[in-house]
Each structure stands twice: as C-alpha cells, then as structure tokens.
Write a structure and sequence with these properties.
This protein has 14 helices and 12 strands. The longest helix has 21 residues, at 245-265. The strands form 2 sheets. Strands 1-7-6-5-4-2-3 form a 7-stranded mixed sheet, sandwiched between helices. A 5-stranded mixed sheet has the order 8-9-12-11-10, with helices on one face. The chain starts with a helix and ends with a helix. Helix 2 (50-62) runs parallel beside helix 9, helix 3 packs parallel to helix 4 and helix 10 runs parallel beside helix 14. It is of the alpha/beta class and 379 residues long. Bound molecules: ligand P1T. Its cofactor is pyridoxal 5'-phosphate.
C-alpha cells in the first residue's frame, strides 16, 4: 500500500457495532469484566484504550514498523525511552536539538547517573570519538531543531551497532512522509505528534515506533507503569490529522522551497538554514535519506543583531510568533528566548545557535501571501 492510502486507512477499521467510519472516541477509564480476568482485552485505559490502539497501529504502519506507542506528549515519549537506561549508562546526542530534550537529559536524567555527550553529529567521526564501553543509546534528531543540520541515519546506525547501543531518531521535523528511519537502521523512531503528525496545532502528544518485540514490551511496560499516556480525544485528533499528512507535507515542502529561495535572494538576509539547498553542508545526505526537504527554515539577518531579529518577529502578520511548529498555519519563533532558552547561552553558541536566529514553520497557506509577509517584516 502506498503512503497516502496508508495515511487514510492503515490501523483503523469501521466500528463493528455501528459501522461508524471514523474511529469512535472511547471516552472511558474502565471496562466491564464478565468474571475476574474474563474481559475483551481492555481492563483499564492507562493500559489499553481502543482509540489509542487504532492510533498506535496507524503510526506503526506509516513508519513501516511493527509496534506503535502513544504518549501524552513528545517529552513523555522521550522520557519513556530514557527509562530503558541504568545509572552509569552513557548517551551520545546531537548538540543541536530541541531545548526540552536537552533539559530532560541534563536537568532530570543526569541526576540519575546517566551521562550525556553532546556532539555535532553531522560529523560522524565526532560520534565515533564519543563512544565508550558504556554507550547504550545514540540520540539523533534530523533535521535538527533549530539549525536544520542533517544527520546520516544509516551511518549512525553502523556506529550504534558496533557500539552495541540502541539508535533513536527523533523524526518530528521529517515525519514518515519524508523519512522512515527504521528502514535506515534505527531501533526506535520518536515523534512529537503535536507537530506535523497531528498538524492542526490543537493537541499535544508523542509517540515511539519500533520493530523489535522485546523492545516494544519493555517500552509498553514503562508506558503503563509510569502512566504518561494520552486521552482518547487527543488520539482521535491525531488519527484525523494523519489522514491528510501526505497532502499537507507535500504543500509544506513546496512552500518551504519557495520561502527558502526567497530568503536566500533577499539582500538583508545573511544566511538561510534549509537542507534543500545544494550548498547545505549535508545536502547530499538529505537528498539520499529524505524524500523532500520539509517546511522548517531558520535564518539570520545581515549584521547578526538580536534587536533586528526581534523587530522582524514583531512585524509578522501571517507568521504568528509562537512556540511549536508543523501546523497548517505558519509560525515564527526566536529559539534563543523561546524553544531553546533552557540550553545555556554558552552551549547554544558552541552549537552555532545565534541570538539573532529566526525560525519559521512554513504552513500550507498560499506561498505568495507568505512571501508578502516576509517582505513587509524584513523590509
Ligand atoms: O512538545 P512535545 O510534544 O512534548 O514534544 C517535544 C519535542 C520533541 N522533539 C522535537 C524535535 C520537538 O521539536 C519537540 C517540541 N518542540 C517545540 C515545542 C518547538 O517549538 O520546537
């Protein structure tokens, strides 16, 4: 089955009771048992819920994986993955990543005795150099948030296999429409479903997709034991969003290209970060592992001044200034004070994240209107 057909049909089935074409929202916490232990596979909604089960199956199918697990947020999904580790274990992560992931690693799990190494992963020799006998997890985000670096998933998988470590890919920016990391050797794919997957800026959720049965069992145990599960209403919203994922992503990519090219040619713009450019440092890897280049773009104005970036952000009419990304509407953001404020300034600087960087989530409006907005805001 091709991707668009799967986005609409995979994992879901008409309600056997009524024929309802859309997955019902099973707004229930518990399920009647005929006799103790004699039930229909559902006991309690933290453990299983039919709306969530259909979403999990749909997510697995889109990534060509075997098992999906849904969580109350992207952070809850990441938290569940890190719980696979023990004190003394080491993680190698990209140094350019979502600020909340960095915060969870350094402010929560470092205190539990897990050691994190942050390296520029678009250079795989930096990853190899950080491997020790205690390396248990390699954390890839690609393209990265917010600098749109591209990491070679197949190469990272080779390093992980040699080290005996698990490879995770945070696929939030790409979605399975652009990239299917399990097929490139990743052990786990992780999502903030809040973004492109749900697609309408109306819910917060996360997910993990895996192939391995034992890994699925371990993650399911933590999903239930720790309880970071989503409610059925949110699962329904993501299921509905997934049905248009392919159509939305196609338009995000088309608009992304037009906006990136407009910015690149603008006399007041110093640098545009977008993996679709031939001169992007990892364009060749992006062209190999992605089907298109997405709708996330960052840029810096000439002069590299924070006050100019702030003035531009204040002038946007269509690119609303807001955290998050991946919805149908265009958003703008200032990573240094918003999404990445939890990364110390010195670490941000080392990763190349300037205080004057502007991040855009290019929506699916008409590109002409988006470019007009950029023109009036940049001046
Ligand atoms: O917000 P939540 O659903 O918990 O997902 C966290 C998360 C994980 N991974 C990536 C790559 C992300 O971008 C995010 C959330 N990011 C934003 C809110 C943002 O504006 O970048």
């Amino acid at each position: 089955m091709k991707f668009g057909t799967k986005a609409i049909h995979a994992g879901v089935h008409p309600d056997p009771e009524t024929g309802a074409i859309m997955t019902p929202i099973y707004q229930t916490s518990t399920y009647v048992q005929r006799s103790p232990g004699d039930h229909k596979g559902f006991e309690y909604s933290r453990t299983h819920n039919p709306t969530r089960s259909q979403l999990q199956d749909a997510l697995a199918a889109l990534d060509n994986g075997k098992h999906g697990l849904a969580f109350a947020s992207g952070m809850a999904a990441i938290d569940c993955i890190v719980k696979l580790l023990q004190p003394g274990d080491e993680v190698i992560s990209t140094n350019d990543l979502y600020g909340g992931s960095y915060r969870l690693f350094t402010k929560v799990y470092a205190a539990y005795g897990i050691k994190f190494h942050f390296v520029p992963m678009h250079d795989m020799t930096a990853v190899e150099a950080a491997v020790t006998e205690r390396t248990k997890l390699i954390w890839v985000e690609t393209p990265t948030n917010p600098l749109l670096n591209v990491i070679d998933i197949a190469a990272a998988s080779a390093v992980a296999k040699k080290a005996g470590a698990l490879l995770v890919v945070d696929n939030t920016f790409s979605t399975p429409y652009l990239q299917t990391p399990l097929e490139l050797g990743a052990d786990m794919v992780m999502y903030s479903l809040t973004k492109y997957m749900a697609g309408h800026s109306d819910t917060v959720m996360g997910a993990v997709v895996v192939n391995d049965d034992e890994l699925h069992q371990r993650l399911s145990f933590y999903q239930n034991a720790c309880g970071g599960t989503p409610g059925p209403q949110d699962c329904f919203l993501v299921l509905r969003g997934l049905k248009t994922l392919h159509v939305r992503m196609q338009r995000h990519c088309e608009n992304g290209r037009k906006v990136a090219e407009y910015l690149k040619a603008h006399p007041k713009v110093e640098k545009v970060f977008w993996p679709g450019f031939q001169d992007h440092p990892n364009h060749e890897v992006a062209a190999r592992q992605m089907r298109d280049f997405g709708g996330m773009i960052s840029f810096v104005l000439k002069g590299d001044r924070k006050e100019d970036a702030v003035a531009t952000l204040e002038k946007f009419q269509l690119f609303s200034l807001a955290e998050s990304l991946g919805g149908v509407e265009s958003l703008s953001g200032h990573p240094a004070t918003m999404t990445h404020a939890s990364i110390p300034a010195e670490e941000r600087r080392k990763a190349g994240l300037s205080d004057s960087l502007i991040r855009l989530s290019v929506g699916i409006e008409d590109a002409e209107d988006l470019i007009e907005d950029l023109a009036q805001a940049i001046g």
